[in-house]
Amino acid sequence: MLSINEIKAKIAQGEGISIEFKTATESLPRNVFESICAFLNRKGGHVFLGVKNNGKIEGIRAESIPDILQTLANDMNNTQIMMPPAFVESEVFDIDGKKIICIYVPESHQAHSHKGIYYDRNNEGDFKLTTHHLISGLYLRKQDVYSENKVFPLLTIEDFVTEDFDYVRNIVSVFDKKHLWISMSNEEILRSAKMYLRDEQTGNSGYTLAAALVFGKPETIARVCPQYKTDALCRKVDVLRYDDRDTVDCNLLQAYDRLMSFVRKHTPDRFYIEGDVRLSIRDIIFREMITNMLIHREFYSYFRATLTIYKDTVVTENGSIPYVMGRITPENLKPHTKNPTIFAFFKQLHWVEDLGSGVRNMYKYCPIYVKGATPIIEEDDIFKITIRYDEEKPDVMQDVPTYEKVLALLRENPKITAYDLMAELKMSERGVRKILTKLVESNTIERQGSRKDGIWIILNNV
User: Fold this and answer.
1) Same domain, yes or no: 21 and 127
2) Same domain for 328 and 435?
């Protein structure tokens, strides 16, 4: 259990997703079981009896404590009160001359109800799960297997898009001419990717949900996972409805291209040189955003995944089984995958990198895409990412080939003058100086020395 100092620190934090206060001067408050049920169903937590909602320690009468502890133990084992029964730890503490009871509730691997009602927990407190979808989501969180591995014995190779297997072979061959998938049949690729499994409970073998999601025809996916869809919306002008929309119900291979095309259509790009390589900042950032939404979501969630482009932000939301709660940063990042089979497959295509790299890449490149901006990544039952872009003040360099020509000339001759560039590019002095100014402002180049005798330095750490 906790020490006195740890208890004081938790009480000082106030009530939240894992802390609850209850007054209990003489008896056990009956609503304590709602909080215990909610903690069991979420991530566990501590209930402090004898503490007011505002954190003031009120205390419990010493002679009432034995009855409170006995009632708590009895009712936690009473199926009329808690179903299924659960074990909690309780301990009495004396803080500044007042006695309180600390109840530690662990996270349960089962779904619990109190008097037939399921409860869950958020930062606002306990809440009832009143719909079938909410209760289904609770059971989905408590399952001890990945939903991507669900076996569908009636699926056949005809349920998949044949051309997508050739598409995969072409991609892997770019990175590895000897990749095993190149010479494999379609069925062998699926087995190699662990998308053909045996269900140990039923004994049936077959293609999995992962196989259907990656390679399936739309009608195949609609049969095995009817809630799977992604809505891509542009709401720059008409924020109540939309300016443009694409309902993406194709498999993940095709969905990636569709969603990237939608983003490219409605957001600006940014010119950026890293070392000697020109990069599309937009593609780097939104590749991470889109692959996260496609690969790390809970596909059996009834929450419709969305990608929405507003006037200055892009927001993705998708159903999730949270591993941690709250905002994710590189400092508190705890990499994990919700669909390891699908993740491993797309890693073979080089569409994703190591776990956690997506968050780090977004934090690295978002401040370059929009000066000083950082992504907002929030994990809860709904996983949400918000990325800023700046359409009103674009930093786009429209004539990218011209900029590359300037950089090539600067590499070849760091002492080259603006007048030499004018002659080489057949441009006006104003046009050349505008390009040089842009390259300096974007931290791509810098000038060392005087205008007459100085040299141009191409920065490799921009």
Assistant:
1) yes
2) no
How far is Cα 318 from Cα 277, in angstroms, rounded to an integer? 33
Residue 97 belongs to some domain of the structure: yes
pTM of the predicted protein model: 0.69
Residues 375, 386 contacting (CB under 8 angstroms): yes
Query: Distance between CA atoms of 147 and 298, rounded to whole angstroms?
Result: 8
What is the CATH number for 48?
3.30.950.30
Number of Cβ within 10 Å of residue 285's Cβ equals 28
Kindly report the number of other CB atoms within 10 A of residue 108's CB atom.
17
pLDDT at 276 over 90: no
Q: Which of 162, 194, 224 is the last residue of a domain?
A: 224
Strands 19-22 and 45-49: parallel
Question: In this structure, what token pair is assigned to residue 98?
Answer: 């007042």
Domain harbouring 288, CATH code = 3.30.565.60
The structure tokens listed for 430 are 């104003």
Per-residue pLDDT of 164-177, as tens digits, reads 999 999 999 999 99
CA dihedral of 26, 28, 29, 34, whole degrees rounded to 10: 170
